[in-house]
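Notes continue from the previous slide.

Worked example: a multi-chain complex. Inputs as given:
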Amino acid sequence: MKRGAPVALLAIGMTLVVATRGIDLSVGTVIAISGAVGAATIANGYGLVPALVTAIAAGLAAGLFNGILVAFIGIQPIVATLILMISGRGIAQLITEGRILTFNLPSFAFLGSGDFLGIPVPVWIWVLAAALVIFLVRRTALGLLIEAIGVNRKASALAGVNARVLLIAVYMASGFCAALAGIIITADIRGADANNAGLWLELDAVLATVIGGNSLLGGRFSISAAVIGAMIIQTIDTGILLAGFPSEYNLVIKAVLVVIILVLQSPNITGDLKFLRQNLFGGRAKAAARQEAGK
Amino acid sequence: MLGRELDEAEETGVRRDTEGRVGEKPLLSFKGIGRKNFVEPFDLEVHKGEVVGLAGLLGSGRTETAELIFGVRTAQSGTVSDDNGKISIGSPRDAIAAGFGFAPEDRKTDGIIADLSVRENIALALQASRGWARPISRGEQERLASEYIEKLDIRTSSAEKPVGELSGGNQQKVVLARWLAMNPRFLILDEPTRGIDVGAHAEILHLIHQITAEGMSILIISSELDELIAVTDRVIVVRDRRHVAELTGAEIATENIVKAIASSAAKKREAV
């Protein structure tokens, strides 16, 4: 649950973006940037609150940048966010000046490794974030409007949906979630590692979203399913390590499991399975009937 | 096939005479609206409860006219005004706020949200204009959907069925329902009866009569002259991205419309 916090947070934001028929590949990098910004703030002698504010502001700014590229300039989401995915690590390294920026601030470290009421703080953060986002999209009309944009952006705009503003909002939400994940990772290791923090996590986040049954083609989405997807991925990761397999096998086994899950989810295969099952049972019933008749 | 319904519509005296309206103040007046290489500047006045038709060949600037009016493309020149003064329309949202509605020509790509349910499609425009923070409750949406499913006779097994699974005519009715739920004062229908079956066709024409009798104004674009003749009070002929002729009352007849559409070709020939 605790190790899965970053992926779960990313999956929350990713689900919103995917629902608009987009994808946000920059989240792993945004983790590094916001972690670096937070750590740099502390290293310059500021306290907990300024560090959190600057880290989250960095995430929101990254989301704003992605959102403008997608909504106003009209670049395809996968390309638009790729820009930041690649260039962002450089930005993070500039902030940390190429070193691993360490700090000593117990209150900040508490966010990554502390416990509250017996439950690790990162778990609190992602559960609260998920609850907040689910409340926001389901208790207001945001969910409906986001789904409408994902299915048909042009028709939605003609019906008066403010597609551009909403698109920017979902990318900013994704940036916000990535910033929270960055804070957790940085706080956990008490240092900002611009090279490795959040590396490849964007792919885990996309995977979690898809395992949760959300279509990359946009439309209907479920945040809670995506979070469960994130937990499945984390369980696989941890399970493989605990089972004593060398960590080199980790990615291979994960890939195999993911393929199995996706195949089971595929509507084509589900149809075939049903057909197969009916035929098998049907065949047995017929055989039984024949036996009856033979007697 | 269509003839029978149209004849009936004519017989029941739905064509109201427009003579009495001429002196009346228009509901909306568009002056000099245009955009370069799109539509030449045009004037248009719309009265309350009036049906204005736009006739012309494909690509003559009919849809473009509708898009300028609704703010899909912004007009480079001209003003729009109503009783209370000028209205500025820079986007569909502005147009909707001004009480306009637009059922586009290409239903599948511009009209319906295929994967969403009939209920959500009907509630969408109303929800968008209310803003995200004031959601229409589920119960209210269901009431709205069942009201319009009944009113427009939308054939669907349930309000929760994705709109993409309905027939063309029923999809068009859902788009109409979306706008009627807003109760706009001016509704633009671009080819509202294209590619739908005869029964739904007649129902939509009937609906146009009904809502204009309640005071809504309509701009209808159609390639079917019979249809324009049956429902409109006034027909504007568009040719080469220019509004070239306006026909009212008894002038609205197939031959006059065809003549206006064709006269440019004739002129060109003379020039050569």
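Summary box: Residues 9-20 of chain B have pLDDT under 50 and may be disordered. The first strand of chain B starts at residue 28 and ends at 35.
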